[in-house]
Design brief:
The protein is of the alpha/beta class. The protein has 11 helices and 9 strands. Strands 1, 2, 3, 4, 5, 6, 7, 8 and 9 form a 9-stranded mixed β-sheet that branches. The structure holds ligand C2E and calcium ion (3 copies). One calcium ion binds next to strand 6.
């Protein structure tokens, strides 16, 4: 009978989700944190495995909640995507990251800045103008900015995504396909995009030094990427053995805890200084 079924149905009722009030309050707090400029960006260096040269950084958001403490991005980014708050977060992140990039440039460090975009950003028609304004404000050329986007984000609504990504690429902003190898592979779409970089998902990289199968996969992705004219970055490099293998395989860039964790601006500057000193 229908009555007896009701509690069961309720389990799946979004409005009755027991975590909903908590999630809503977290999103309210995120909105406030964005408005009050209370979030931070950490920067993880990207380096050439063959030369050891640091050529870029990925900006990763950090949120210390006044009561809950550190909230990992994997837990609030999906929520922010659901509620649409991600657009505000992305705009905040772009401004913060480009200002940081301009500060590095003024200090003589010519680094490309990578910023993550989410699927909802691809529907933000005002984003290209926003980026133009930020580039003008910071005096950076468009090729100093790289936007990372996952295949699954593109595949949600591929035609709209491609139109948006082309508008961004037309300005000279570079595009990177993030988490490459774990989404639906979509070369039919990728070849319609002026992609500069593919980023091998860290699941293939973290045990690279001890897993023959991962070595075969990574080697193949590097070759495929190069044949298509892309630069290839490996993320999640956690030990010297993996970094050496990537150098051998001709991987263009590497990123991971073995090289450096995501660093706050002061620690990033120290890293650059010690690195330039040949450490
Ligand atoms: P992602 O874009 O794939 O970022 C890489 C994640 O791997 C980061 O986690 C980074 O700290 C972590 N990582 C880096 N090196 C290593 C390593 O050697 N080993 C391991 N195990 N992990 C490593 P994080 O900062 O917690 O971010 C998680 C995800 O949250 C990101 O994955 C990205 O999807 C999202 N995210 C972070 N910041 C932003 C942002 O500002 N905007 C958007 N849209 N998404 C963001
Ligand atoms: Ca990324
Ligand atoms: Ca990634
Ligand atoms: Ca990811």
């Amino acid at each position: 009978n229908a009555r007896a079924a009701e509690p069961y149905v309720r389990l799946y009722d979004h409005a009755a989700d027991p975590h909903r009030p908590e999630r809503l309050s977290l999103m309210g707090d995120l909105k406030i944190a964005i408005e009050q400029d209370a979030l931070e960006l950490a920067y993880q260096p990207k380096l050439e495995p063959q030369t050891g040269r640091v050529v870029g950084a990925e900006a990763l958001v950090r949120w210390t909640h006044p009561r809950r403490g550190f909230v990992p991005p994997d837990s609030f980014i999906p929520l922010a995507e659901e509620t649409g708050a991600i657009r505000h977060l992305t705009r905040w992140g772009l401004r913060r990251a480009l200002r940081q990039s301009a500060a590095w440039a003024a200090a003589g460090h010519d680094l490309r800045m990578s910023v993550n975009l989410s699927v909802r950003d691809l529907g933000d028609a005002a984003l290209p103008d926003r980026i133009d304004a930020l580039l003008a404000e910071t005096g950076l050329t468009a090729d100093r900015l790289m936007l990372e986007i996952t295949e699954s984000a593109i595949m949600g609504e591929p035609e709209a995504a491609i139109a948006m990504l082309r508008r961004l690429a037309d300005r000279g902003v570079e595009l990177s396909i993030d988490d490459f190898g774990v989404g639906q592979s979509s070369f039919a779409y990728l070849r319609r995009l002026p992609v500069r970089e593919i980023k091998i998902d860290r699941s293939f990289v973290k045990a690279l030094d001890e897993t023959a199968q991962d070595q075969a996969i990574v080697r193949s992705i590097i070759e495929l990427g190069h044949n298509l004219g892309y630069k290839v970055t490996a993320e999640g490099v956690e030990n010297a053995g993996s970094l050496n293998l990537l150098a051998e395989m001709g991987c263009d860039l590497a990123q991971g805890y073995y090289i450096a964790r995501p660093l706050m601006p002061g620690a990033f500057a120290d890293f650059l200084a010690s690195h330039a000193a040949g450490e």
